[in-house]
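pipeline: protein-struct stage 2 | run 1193 | DNA mismatch repair protein MSH3
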Amino acid sequence: MCIIRRRNQICDTQFYIRTLHQIMVYEPSRILLVSTTFPPNPISTLYNMIAETFTSTPLVPLDRKHWSEQSGLEYLQTLAFRDDVEAIKVAIEGNFYATCALSAAMRYLDSEFSIRFAPHSLRIKYQSPEATMMIDLSAIASLELIQNLHHAKSKECLFGFLNQAQTPMGSRMLRANILQPYTKTDDIEPRYDALAELTTHEDMFHEVRKALHGFDDVEKLLTKLVILPVQGSLYHAEQAINNILIVKKFITSVAPVFESLLPARCILLGQIRETSRPEVIQPILNLINTIIDENATFVRTPLDLRHQRTYAVKSNINGLLDVARKTYKEATDDLYEYVAALNTEHDLAGEPRYDNTRKFFLRFRTADMEHRRIPDEFINRVRKKDYIECQTLKIVQLNQRISDSAVDVVNQSDKVVSELLVEVRRFAPEMFKVCESIALLDVLAAFGQIVTTQEYVRPVLSGNMAIRAARHPILEKVSSSSFIPNDYYATEQHYRFQIITGCNMSGKSTYIRTVALAQVMAQIGCFVPAEYASFPVIHNLFSRTTTDDCIEANMSTFSVEMREMAFILRNINGKSLAIIDELGRGTSTRDGLAIAISMAEALVQSGAFVFFATHFTDLAKILTDRPGVLNRHLATETTVTDDNVPKMTMLYKVESGPVREESYGITLAGAVGFPTRFLEVAQHVSTALREQAEVKKRNSGARKIVLKRKLILTLHESLQLGYNSNMDDGSLASYLRRLQDEFIQRMEENEAPEDEVENAGGSEVLVPESDSD
C-alpha cells in the first residue's frame, strides 16, 4: 500500500493505549523503533508494551540519525501529490515526531528493500486519531470484531459478517472502520443517508453492486505503478506491461460506477459520483489508447497473458517490436503445425498445453495408449489422473525459440511502455481518489446487502441509549432457531450502570455483547438489528469478558483479569462504554465479591455506560440504591417432569430486578442429567448453608440491638449517679465528658463486625471519681 496512512504523533497516556491501537488497526509487517530503545540500552516502557502485544511482528532498530524532521519535510515535498503538499505542511506544523517517523520509514524502504517512488506519486495523509473510537485490544479479541475466538478462519465474527464487499479495497476499508469507528456525527450521518438511499432504490443498488464486480485490487496496482525499479530486468518489464493493462481495466470499470450513481441524490453518493465522472478518467484512457491496443486486456491464464503482453502495444509504433512479434508468431505457428503432424504420425489426439514452468507440452488421454507403447521420442513424461503429459526434443527447441522471441518482444515493448507509465503517473492523484471512492461505495453497498436481507433499522445519534428488540447480529445469522430480542435503555442521568444477573446459559454474555456490537455498527455508519435504536456517541470501548490465562507471561486467569481491569479503570471516562462479564470469578468467593464491589463502585463513579454481568447476587443488592444503577436479570422457567426431574427452560429475555431463582446451578445440573443422589446431597448442603447464614445474620443483628439497649441503660444509670453526686462544677463537667467519650466508643464498637463486637467487652456503669457521699 503506497498511501502513507498514518505516522502519528499521538496524544497518549502513559500506557500508550492509542499507539497500540493504531498499530493493531494497520497490521504492519515491521515496527520501526529508535535503536537506543533496544538492549543493551535501558528498555523503554513503549518498547516493552509493543513487544508484549505484537509478538509475531518483528521490531526493527533504526539509527537515530534517520529520524530527521528535515529529511521528513524533504520527502514530503518530493513525494506527496503537488496539490496536497502545502495542506499537509499546515496540518503537521508542530508535529515533530510524525515528520521524523515519515523520514525513518522512507529511509528504511530505501536501504532495506531498495524501493524508490516516482516524484509526487504518493498520497500522504495526516489524519488525527482523535476523531475515532478507541477500542482496547482485549475488546477487539473478546468481542470477535475481526476474528472468531475459536476458529481463526471462521467468518463468524463482525468483520466476517459485514464483509459483503466485492473489492479488496472495500474489505480493507471495512476492517479499518470496525477497528476505528467514527466519533463525529458529520462522518456518520452522511453514511446513514447514503445507505438509506441505496436500500430504498433497488434498481440503483443492483446497478452499483454489478458495477463494483469488475474491480481488481487497485490499491496494490497503484502501489506497483509508482514504485521505480532500481535495476531493469525482464521481470520488471513484464510487470510494467501487466500494470498498464490492469490500469486500463480499472479505468474502463469506473464508467459503469458513474452511470449507476446517476439517480443518487444524497451528498455522499453525489461526491463519489463526482470523483468518478468521465472528465476525470477519460484523459487517462485516451493516453493509454494512444499506445496500447484497444482490444488488449489483462487476463490471468499464463498463455493468454503472454499473448496479451506480446500484442499489447499497437503496431507501427516501434519497428523492432513489429519484427520481434512476427518472429514470435512464426515460431508459435511452427509449434502448432509440428503438434498436428505428430498427432497424425502416431494416430493420437494430443493437444498443446502451456504453463510458466514447462512452457508448451503435449497432453493426451491415457486410454489412447492403453494397448500401445509410448513412443521413445516422448520425453519428460508425467501421469496426471487420466492424462499423460510429455514433450519431445523438437517441442523443447521450439519452446526456446518462442521464449527468445517473447523476451525480445517484451524488451522492445518496455521502451514504449516505460514512457507511457511516466505520463500515466501524472494522473496518480486522480486515480487514488477514485480508488478511495470505490472502496467507500463498496463498503456502503456491503452494508446495503445485509440491510436488504435482514430487518435492520437506521440508528439515531443522541445522548441516550434506547434500543428496542435488539438482536446479536452474528448469532442471529448462525442460530438454527429464531433469536430472542431484548431491550436496552440508559441515559446520561439514569441507568448508566446496569447489573445483569441470571443463571448459567441464560444469555448474560450474549446480552452485554449485543449492545457493544450494535454500538460499533452504529458508529461505522451501518444500520443495526433492532426495531428502534438510539445511541450516544462513544469515544472508548472496553471489554473484560474472557477467562483465558496467559502462559507466555506466566499469568493466571485472575492476574490477567486484574491487569485488564486496572487498565480499564485508569482510562474509562464519561464517554466510554464498558462490558464486564463475571468479574472476580478467578479467585475465592469472598475476595471475588469484595473486588467486584470495589471495582463496580469505581465504574459507577466514572460516569461511563457499563453493563456488568455477574453471578454475585449480593453485588446487585448492595448497589441497588446507588444513583444510576439498574438491576436486570435474564429470565428462566423451572418445571418438574412426571419423573420428578427438574427442567429449566431459558427464556433469554431480560427482566427488571436481580435474579430470584435460588440454587439455579443445582437445578441446571439436574436438567442436564446429573445423578439424583448427587443433586440431593448438593441441595441439602445448599439449604443448610443458607439457613446457617440466615440464622447468623439474625443472631448478629439481634445481638447488636441488645448491646445497644444495654449501653443506653448503662448510660442512664451513670447519669443518675452524676446527678445525685455532690461534685463541683469542674469535676461534674469532666465526668460528663468521660461519660460521653465512653458511650460513643462503645456504640462504634457495636457497629463493628461480629468478631470485633465479641472482643469489645461488656458495659459497666461509670462511677464518679469523687463522690461526697
